[in-house]
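tool=predict chain=A
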Amino acid sequence: MDAELFFTTLTLLVGFYMAWNIGANDVSNAMGTSVGSGALTLRKAVIIAAILEFCGAFFVGSDVSETMQRGLIDTTLFIQEPMILILGFCSALLATGIWLQIASYFGWPVSTTHAIVGAILGFGFIGGGLSALHWGELSSIATSWVLSPLLSGLIAYTLFGILQRKILYTLQPVLATRKLFPSLVSFVLFTFTLSLLFNGLENVHLSFSLGHVILLSLGIGIIAFFLTKICLKHFTSLSTTHASSHHASPQNVISLDKAVKHLQRIQANSTENTHKKVSGLLLEARFLSQELKKESCFSQTSSEYKTVERMFVILQVLSACFIAFAHGANDVANAIGPVAAVLDVIKLGFVSPVSYIPSWLLAFGGLGIVIGLATWGWRVMETIGRKITELTPTRGFCAEFSAAIVILIASKLGLPISTTHCIVGAVLGVGLAKGMKALNLSMIREIVLSWIITIPASAGVAILIFYLCKMLFLPLLNT
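tool=predict ok
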């Protein structure tokens, strides 16, 4: 076997191993909310991920892939030694794959993006020094790592808060759902279509103007709205009865919350004597509001709630499709970006400033991701779906949809953000909407700790493998 064929085969194998581990860890993060809430079985989740992850990788994956292969380190510093670049990227992929497999075994939802960025930086520093690192790009990526979970959590918190007020705490939640549901379906499909047409399709040589994209997306959203209304009219199993009488009415919670707001206004515009009395009433009203929310138990016992959750299964399946597509668009770059750079060097014999990412390579990465989810992904799914906070279809929908929006925006900007950060941030946002007691704080601490050690761990392993590769392969090439 000649050197070119050997290194091409080695690179593809290592890249596939990396993609497999992305599927085992990161896709599990994305689909874990659907499985944990009971909206999807593991088998159905794998099928949805297989289709949508592949489509996201194939249609939109090239934007972030270009960042991963050229944006983190200055590859032109390796022009005189292209073999160093080949060994470095292969070492980064292998190191990341090893770390992800360890994390997946223990059920840690670590960040694939953190891992590959840390590994590339590790070999880049050893191979080219501090000058080889693109500090401007790194600062924007680091900023996105902080902002993405915060933004995902904020959107999820807000969205679930709206659902609580408009549906879950009303006297007739099923009736409220029937009124709001067509608009939600329309908005989800409008957003998904807008993202798909706006972000990509260059790989199949289709392009649309901004006006056409908006018109097509609006058209699909409007059609979805009316089709949903028609379907709901024939959905006769929807009950419109009131919640069980032996629990506090959710309407009482809403009324008391309004009273709290009125008391706050009085407190802000009252004299000192009145201020103290109102403060006592305000404290008592807040305490009573919390107690009524616990007593209502609507989310656990009401037959109407179960009907509402069955309806939201449809929306969560849509949001699962959305986040699978978004994940494929963003995280296929973690495996394919370095592979494309190596294959380009092997083919040309030198380091070029820009390399083309073929469609078959994006498809190759998408296939590896799907196989990883199907064979190893259940471990991390359990952590995301069941161990952070209790998830239901309404909560899972809010978490998935919020994370997917942030991921797709980042994909278009070419930022390799962490899908893990987005989905965990969104799950935390949903949990906070129910109060701190709804969160498993010990599991959150464990997850954050795994995030902290991911970059140095992957960088260290990458450096070790890089030195081993230099010892094994460079002497052979020089003989």
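The longest helix spans residues 303-348. Residues 239-247 have pLDDT under 50 and may be disordered.
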